[in-house]
Amino acid sequence: MTAAEAAIRICDVSHQFGEIGQARHVQALKDTSLDIARGELHCLIGPSGCGKSTLLSVIGGLTKPTTGSVTVSGKPVRGPMPHDIAYVFQESALFPWNTVLENIVLGMKFQGVPKAKRRDRARRALEAVGLEAFAQHFPGQLSGGMRQRAALARALSLETDILLMDEPFGALDEQTRMVLGEDLSVLLSRSHKTIVFVTHSLGEAVFLADRVAVFSARPGTIKQIIAVDEPHPRKPSFMTALKFHALRDQLYGLLHDEIRKSIAETAPLRRRYDDTAEKNEGVA
Amino acid sequence: MAVTHPHARTAIVRTEAPLKRWFLRHPGAMRGLVIALLLLIWEFAARFLLDSDFISPPSVVLMSLGTLFATPGVPKALGLALYEIAIGFALAAVIGAGIGLAVGLSRFAHRSFMPIILLLYGLPQVTILPIFVLLFGIGAASKIAFGVSHGMFPIMISVAAGVQKINPVLRTSARSMGASRAQILYHVIFPHAVPSFFTGLRLGMTGVLLGVLLAELYVSTAGIGFFTSLFTQNLEPTRLIGLVAMLAVIAVVLNEIVRRAELHYGRWRA
Fold first, then answer.
1. B268 in the Ramachandran plot: left (φ > 0), alpha (ψ -120 to 50) or beta?
2. Is there a smaller number of Cβ atoms within 10 Å at the N or the C end of chain A?
3. Are B245 and B111 in a shared domain?
4. Are A89 and B174 an interchain contact pair (Cβ–Cβ within 8 Å)?
């Protein structure tokens, strides 16, 4: 992929929390490089703590990486770039004291959209996610799925080329997330946005992504990239297709060992527990 | 719409008497009943059991409120108390919210100054009341200052705690959309701190009332404190209790104003 084709270029990004030698030192990401093409939906999947959310927040300019660099549309990322990148978070990041409409309008105010254009754009974004009837509701009056739709509407209203989504459907029940996944696929086929999507769900990754980057256990780095060659919008019938299952199984095969490794980090705890158990038996 | 099972409904209807259900739906009625009962006990005790030099029945107090207001200087003293409480409350709110925000927003400020605030709040301030009088004189200023020093700490502490409890993802998402520091303060931190500010205001209100009245009782030449000691020494419980009842009315009215404002600004939580 040439620099012109890539919407996002990630070059040798490493990130650690805390200093080496400190108790809370964690190497979250190690020498990760990735090019994300314009208009693709790219999923990041991996075991817990592999640094996929950290990478997303590095792309978004919310976290400064320890080493390495990210360029978005040819510009180096040094901080939040609200005109290029919009974010959808895992939990509801709507302001609970503002109505859905006020939330969307406020996002555009932060971004710097002229006042006269805000209401109109907010209406259009709400229509795109099917929430126009709930403009005057407060987030607390909506279901979890509707709240994430509203958060998506707020991100869409910013009219950025890039959308970063950090497990946006992670807190929702499976049925709701399947429906939202279908809607997102439809939306994507119309909007030609570049989307980076972090998920834990194998099915969600295969269903949504054009490409899936599989992360290794901590310190995380990209183990393999799998392409899902299927046009958007994707229908629910894709989920029963042989291709879907083959890809899902391939992903699981790649992830299985990494998940074991990330769970193995807790093994010393178990040994300590066994030691005390033996001592207690000795006393008895 | 949690319980719609037909058998569950009929079971509830059968086990609860209609009177009990009526009371459960009208908590105000129960409250009124308890107050009426206490007034009756008071009335009975004051008329038949206790010395009329020390206590008057509520009916007599109510009937003689007119003579209380006819006492020269009493309306002015009540007006002065209201003035001191209102000014003290406004100052306590501004100082408490300002320091609370500053201490809540900065980890460094919180770790440096919060122990000092808690120590000062824990001090029995009445022991240093004479210092307030020496500093601010025997007029209204020392009463207001003592009210402020009682009322500002609860406001400070609840605002600081409220600001700290803010969900970090709200600040992060505002930042990702390009919000400036001032915009985050105005659109994210202020609205988040509003409920704890009101909790602090209602706690601070009792503090201001206590501080002002303590200072009034300690030294006063024409205020509530003066009349309180006058009525006590002259064995006039009717007018004494009437005066205290008027102070209670001031407290209830101020509290109600704060409560209304709280409901107005807390609509989103309904």
1. alpha
2. C
3. yes
4. no
In a domain, B55, yes or no: no
Average pLDDT (A46-55) is 84
Structural domain total, chain B: 2
How far apart are alpha carbons B225 and B249 in whole angstroms? 17
Q: Are A72 and A59 in contact (CB under 8 A)?
A: yes
Establish if A122 belongs to a structural domain. no
Chain B residues in contact with A62 by the CB 8 A cut-off are 172, 175-176
Classify residue A53: in a domain, yes or no: yes
* Domain assignment present for B58: no
Contacts of B268 in chain A (CB under 8 A): 96-98, 138, 140
In Å, how far is B163's CA from the nearest CA of chain A?
15
**Backbone dihedral region of A192: left (phi > 0), alpha (psi from -120 to 50 degrees) or beta?**
left
Put simply, the answer to whether A87 touches B170 (Cβ < 8 Å) is: no
User: Could you list the residue range(s) of the whole structural domain that residue A213 is in?
Assistant: 6-84+160-283
ipTM field = 0.83
Range of the domain at B184: 63-269
Position B20 scores a pLDDT of 83
Residues from chain B that touch A107, judged by Cβ atoms under 8 A, are 177
Task: Provide mean pLDDT across the span A130-140.
Answer: 91
Residues from A contacting B (CB-CB < 8 Å) are 60-62, 80, 82-83, 85-87, 89, 91, 93, 95-98, 106-107, 109-112, 138, 140, 158
Number of domains in chain A: 1
Longest dimension (CA), chain B: 74
Same structural domain, B71 and B25: no
| B169–A91 CB contact, under 8 Å | yes
Whether residue B97 sits in one domain with residue B43: no
- The larger pLDDT score, comparing residue B26 to residue A23, is at B26
